[in-house]
Amino acid sequence: MNFKIRRAAKEDCKDISRMIMDLAIYEKMPDQVKISHEELERDGFCQNPLFECLVAEVPEEHKNGIGTALLSKVAEIGKKKQCVRLQLSVLNWNTPSRDFYAAKGAQDLTVTEGWHAIRFDGQNLDNLANEAPKD
């Protein structure tokens, strides 16, 4: 693997904000982005953060196993916190992402309002967490 996964730092928030907007543009929903990098800094890097974030440091962005590594790391963190499932939302037209999650053992639970609810639980969550890169 030619990348490193680490916990995000406050200094990453501008880049994280940019990536959120890039994703929203890809999903054809740029008007739905309502959070600024200042809000990310405030809400994610305080005494009791409202979210956790991982960053992949890579020389190239795609096809390096980064998606699998990040997803597995999220599963590993969730399992350590005794989470029993990992649930995601995917737009109905985003077949590459749906296929990626399905190949990892996710169940396609619903098709409503153009979203697919994706869940990892039980053995599939365990398997995903076990694939996480070791520090």
UniProtKB/TrEMBL annotation:
The keyword Ligase does not apply. Residues 58-102 form the N-acetyltransferase domain. The keyword Acyltransferase applies. One of its GO terms (molecular function) is N-acetyltransferase activity. Keywords: Acyltransferase, Transferase. Pfam families: Acetyltransf_1. Belongs to the acetyltransferase family. This is Spermidine/spermine N1-acetyltransferase family member 2b.
